[in-house]
C-alpha cells in the first residue's frame, strides 16, 4: 500500500487547509501598493494606479517615506518642501537686501511682506506635511487635509496684502477697503473648504471653484488700478506682468488638477511623475515666486522715487 494511501484522512484535511488560496488577498512585501490594494479612504484619484504607501499608523513611518523610497506622493512633498525653503530664505534676507536700501521704508513695508512671505511658507509646509501623512491613518489624513486647504486660503489672502498696499500706496482708505474685503472673503472661503463634506474626492471641482473664485476677487482692485494708473505704468513700473503670470499659473494648475489631466488620458502612466496634482504643486511655487517679483518691483517703484503721491 502506498504512503499516501496510508495517511490519516484528518491529517490530509489539515494539510490541505494550510495551502493558501490563489484568490486570498496576500500582504504585499513591496514598499508601495496598487489602487486595488489600498483601503477605500486612501482612494482619491482612480487614474493613479500604483505607488501608494502602506498605511503606517506611525509618524516615524510617514517621515521615513519623505526620503526613504519613491512613491506617488514624493514629488508633491518635495516640491513644496523646496518651495518652503526658498521662501524662508526670502524672509531671512528681505530686511537686509531690500528694506535697508531705503531710509524712508517703514514698518508697514516690513509688515506686508512678512504677511505674504509667512503665508507662503505656511501654505507650502502645510501642503508638504499633509502629503507626508496621508498614509498615517484615516483620522490623521482627514484632519491634516484641513491644514492643506487652510494653507491655500492663507496664501491667497496673504498675497493680496503687498499688492493692495503698493497698488494704492497714496490712498490709505482704499487699502483698508480692499484688504478688509479680501480678508472677509478669505474667511468665507475657509469656512466652505474646511467643511468635512467638501473634503471628499467627489467635491474636488467645488473646492477648485472656491479657490479660483477667491483668486478672482483680485479683479476688483486690479481693475481699479488699471483705470487709475493705466496699464502701461502698471506693466512697466509696478510689475503688473508678473502679477498676471502668477494668476495664470495658479489657474492653469488648478484646472489641470480639477480635470485630472494628463493622468485621465493615460491611467497608470503618470503615477510617479507629471500627474496633475504634481503639476499643480509646481505651478503654486512658480506663481508665488512670480508674485514676489511683482511686489518687489512695486516696492522699489515707490521707494526709489519713481512713484510720487
UniProtKB/TrEMBL annotation:
It comes from the Eukaryota. It is a multi-pass membrane protein. GO terms for biological process: intracellular zinc ion homeostasis. Residues 1-28 are annotated as: Disordered. One of its GO terms (cellular component) is membrane. One of its GO terms (molecular function) is signaling receptor activity. It is found in: Membrane. The chain crosses the membrane at residues 77-94, 106-129, 149-169, 176-194, 206-227, 239-258, 278-299. Zn(2+) binds at residues 131, 277, 281. Residues 1-16 have a biased composition (Polar residues). Keywords: Membrane, Metal-binding, Transmembrane, Transmembrane helix, Zinc. Its main location: membrane. Belongs to the ADIPOR family. PANTHER family: ADIPONECTIN RECEPTOR PROTEIN, ADIPOR/PROGESTIN RECEPTOR-RELATED. This is HlyIII-domain-containing protein. The lineage of its organism: Eukaryota, Fungi, Dikarya, Basidiomycota, Agaricomycotina.
Amino acid at each position: 500500500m502506498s504512503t499516501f494511501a496510508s495517511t490519516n484522512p484528518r491529517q490530509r484535511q489539515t494539510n490541505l487547509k494550510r495551502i493558501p488560496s490563489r484568490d486570498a488577498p496576500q500582504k504585499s512585501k513591496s514598499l508601495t501598493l496598487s489602487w486595488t490594494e489600498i483601503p477605500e479612504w486612501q482612494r482619491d484619484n482612480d487614474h493613479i494606479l500604483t505607488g501608494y504607501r502602506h498605511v503606517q499608523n506611525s509618524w516615524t513611518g510617514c517621515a521615513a517615506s519623505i526620503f526613504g523610497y519613491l512613491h506617488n506622493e514624493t514629488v508633491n512633498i518635495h516640491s513644496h518642501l523646496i518651495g518652503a525653503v526658498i521662501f524662508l530664505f526670502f524672509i531671512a534676507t528681505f530686511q537686509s537686501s531690500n528694506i535697508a536700501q531705503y531710509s524712508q521704508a517703514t514698518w508697514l513695508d516690513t509688515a506686508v511682506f512678512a504677511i505674504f512671505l509667512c503665508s507662503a511658507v505656511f501654505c507650502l509646509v502645510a501642503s508638504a506635511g499633509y502629503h507626508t501623512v496621508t498614509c498615517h491613518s484615516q483620522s490623521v489624513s482627514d484632519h491634516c487635509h484641513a491644514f492643506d486647504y487652510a494653507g491655500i486660503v492663507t496664501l491667497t489672502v496673504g498675497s493680496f496684502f503687498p499688492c493692495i498696499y503698493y497698488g494704492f500706496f497714496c490712498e490709505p482708505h482704499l487699502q483698508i477697503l480692499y484688504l478688509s474685503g479680501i480678508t472677509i472673503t478669505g474667511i468665507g472661503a475657509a469656512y466652505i473648504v474646511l467643511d468635512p463634506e467638501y473634503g471628499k474626492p467627489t467635491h474636488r471641482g467645488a473646492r477648485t471653484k472656491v479657490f479660483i473664485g477667491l483668486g478672482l476677487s483680485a479683479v476688483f482692485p486690479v481693475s481699479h488700478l488699471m483705470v487709475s494708473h493705466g496699464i502701461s505704468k502698471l506693466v512697466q513700473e509696478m510689475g503688473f506682468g508678473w502679477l498676471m503670470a502668477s494668476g495664470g499659473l495658479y489657474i492653469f494648475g488648478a484646472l489641470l488638477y480639477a480635470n485630472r489631466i494628463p493622468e485621465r488620458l493615460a491611467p497608470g502612466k503618470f503615477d510617479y511623475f507629471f500627474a496633475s496634482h504634481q503639476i499643480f504643486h509646481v505651478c503654486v511655487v512658480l506663481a508665488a515666486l512670480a508674485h514676489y517679483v511683482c511686489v518687489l518691483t512695486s516696492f522699489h517703484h515707490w521707494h526709489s522715487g519713481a512713484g510720487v503721491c
